[in-house]
């Protein structure tokens, strides 16, 4: 059961009580101490495995190598254990482990998602929480609950408060959720977590330019940065330092000047006292290495590809129009106005956010791969470019309505595809949710998560190392503090940064 919290701007002279502030309500959820039910704990394990798979596959990619190089130059305090840098057994200061591991998880854009009023990848909460747990000696049960709390807070914020309409990046919801998760992990007083949540929000508000136009590797770094500064915010709050307050409702706060303005009102639903965190069950992972709003359309393209070949092949296609939601059209579709989404020389990060490119590849290849579907393997192929440039998107009000529906059976992230051939004939099909979605044709269960991990790590580490990691990950709620250090995949060959920066 949840309770709706009404959030609005208050003038300074109104003296909004702490207990009535959203940051305090979030901190109360963290301090409640209710254990997650078995199905929630099982899903936490699934997402830990999911993160590890995508981190293993990305561990020698440039941004991850750079982040790891920075982290390895920041030793932990001598009286603390430190946190493990993924891919190694090396331990460093927790905020830097969160940094390196967060980039590894985010680099391929291949882990879980939750979409509502705003966007999110709630799995981004796991690296900072795991790092703090390893560093402070928390056990697996405490970490499991902390992850469940962080998901709860992030889902509530993403459902209730839209950031992207004001071009604020979605990591502004991640900083507070990580701070709340750490508060739960360390069993901190409500007052301490309240200050940390506010500091974390204040320091993680940034523009959406990181996901617009020519998208760079910062897209992978952005959530890792949020996790890093959230750890630092908790540390300061534990030392007695305060925060800008009230950060959401203040006269010069986030809502008044970054979001809908001084007359705005939002509703954020959080669990009532004594209610176990369960929001992780509303989230979903990816079968394909591309932005989540492309997942269903990739599955639809896999169905349509053979039918297009039967009609004469890609050369007979005059146009393909994807009728979809507002978000899909304007964020990853032609409604964005980004010419980079049609540029064969665009970065991987840009093409990951180009539904015309993604659908074209899936039509031709019968699927989508985290390496083979991106440059330099695919983008400059003449047949692909021709098909790619024939694809456009339009907003369909019905798909927009379904995108924002609160009814899980109706909520959809797909669209209708209309193919027009050069002879004037047409081919039309539609899909509501991805095959891997809980309501899809092949919902992801434990075997699928383990299978994804093995697929992504097969060419990176041997079966013995895969088994060692899985043996610990599958027992997460039962792990001792010492065993949490085993939640890494150790690689025999790690790439090393070619240069050196300030550190």
Question: TL;DR?
Answer:
This protein has 503 residues and is α+β, with helices and mostly antiparallel strands. The protein has helices spanning 22-31, 38-58, 62-71, 94-106, 126-136, 140-160, 171-185, 190-204, 218-238, 254-258, 295-310, 326-332, 348-351, 355-365, 382-388, 397-403, 446-457, 463-473; strands at 2-8, 83-84, 91-92, 265-271, 317-324, 391-395, 415-421, 426-431.
Question: Would you give an account of this structure?
Answer:
The chain has 503 residues and is an alpha+beta fold. It has 2 domains: 2-282, 2-methylcitrate dehydratase PrpD; 292-431, 2-methylcitrate dehydratase PrpD (60s Ribosomal Protein L30, Chain: A). Helix content is 43%, strand content 9%. The protein has 18 helices and 8 strands. The chain has helices at 22-31, 38-58, 62-71, 94-106, 126-136, 140-160, 171-185, 190-204, 218-238, 254-258, 295-310, 326-332, 348-351, 355-365, 382-388, 397-403, 446-457, 463-473; strands at residues 2-8, 83-84, 91-92, 265-271, 317-324, 391-395, 415-421, 426-431. The protein has a 4-stranded mixed beta sheet. A hairpin with a 4-residue loop joins strand 7 (415-421) and strand 8. Helix 1 (22-31) packs parallel to helix 7 and helix 5 (126-136) packs parallel to helix 7 (171-185). The longest helix has 21 residues, at 38-58. The radius of gyration is 22 Å and the shape is globular. It starts with a strand and ends in a 30-residue tail after the last helix. The model has no long low-confidence stretch (mean pLDDT 94).
